[in-house]
Design a protein that fits this description.
The chain contains three helices and four strands. The chain is globular and about 40 Å long. By secondary structure, it is of the alpha+beta class. The longest helix is centred in the middle third of the chain and has 14 residues. Helices cover 37% and strands 22% of the residues.
């Protein structure tokens, strides 16, 4: 599912109020972090992740990798932070603006 610019802007506005709940450090992207992000996306739908200074990987590449592994969308990458979105399978909470056909 690709996000439209309107949907992306809506998710960005929602993400200003959420805290960073994961930090990727020296060990980079581990299976444990990927699984934890996957679980958090199911519960929250919108997750903010921070890349620490001791991680030498590019935040944009990490965002793409996490998104691919969790089947989510990268909403935004700013500096060393990125935001992911995936609608919950069980109980969706966030209603996106409709995409134009």
């Amino acid at each position: 599912m690709d996000l439209t610019s309107k949907q992306r802007a809506y998710l960005k506005s929602l993400s200003t109020n959420i805290d960073t709940i994961f930090q990727i450090g020296k060990a980079s992207l581990t299976p444990a972090i990927t699984n934890a992000v996957d679980d958090a996306l199911e519960k929250r739908e919108l997750v903010k992740i921070s890349v620490l200074k001791n991680c030498f990987d590019d935040p944009r590449e990490l965002a793409e990798m996490v998104a691919e592994r969790t089947h989510s969308n990268v909403v935004q990458v700013i500096g060393k932070r990125f935001i992911l979105y995936r609608p919950s399978k069980k109980a969706p909470k966030i209603e996106l603006p409709p995409a134009k056909s």
